[in-house]
Amino acid sequence: MLLVPGHCVMDEASANSVRQFVEQGGTAIMTAYSAKVDEHNQVFRTTMPGRLSDVFGIRANAFERPVYHHTDSNEDGLQKQKLNLRREHPGIKFANHVVDIPIDYYEMVETSTAKVIAQFTNLQQELPAITVNSFGKGKAVYLAVPAHASLMQDLLRQIYVELEIRKGPETPSGVAARQVGKFTIYVNTTLPGST
């Protein structure tokens, strides 16, 4: 599995790596803000996500920010401040439940070959929130929102079942573990005295 969370710059080598990974049977998950500009920081003149719209089977036409911002001029240039006024309160609806996370940015996605597995709720129109596309021997999943911990956990639980990925050893916060054969390897990333 390959996660591509908010990888704005998509150079040709990276795009080819994602394409080959999926073609050969891998599952790639990419989020909003990804593949917007090329290696020269130029916005793609082609369908977004740049260089990968066929792999993900979508076209990201536009984006929306449900939270109003107030722009001020200051000595360093323009500065945006959140006003915490919401025009919309979108949620993400899977087949049997809704994930309610704070969404401050979402993309308006149009599917070509991808299937919609979750939609936005509480908007004027139904829009795809999460899509999955079969490409080559693999699958490409696109989230029309930036990565959010609870949404990613929910999505990964579903994908783990589909890919037959078993959950690793339970660990406390700050400790990672991996099962390698009959051994379990633990990595403690906490500082002494911290909990």
Automatic annotation (TrEMBL):
Signal peptide (from-to): none
CDD domains for this protein: A4_beta-galactosidase_middle_domain
UniProt-listed GO biological process terms: carbohydrate metabolic process
Ranges for domain Beta-galactosidase trimerisation: 2-165
Protein name: Beta-galactosidase trimerization domain-containing protein
InterPro entries, A to Z: Beta_galactosidase_Trimer, Class_I_gatase-like, Glyco_hydro_42
Record-linked Pfam families: Glyco_hydro_42M
Superkingdom per UniProt: Bacteria
Organism: Cohnella zeiphila
GO molecular function: beta-galactosidase activity
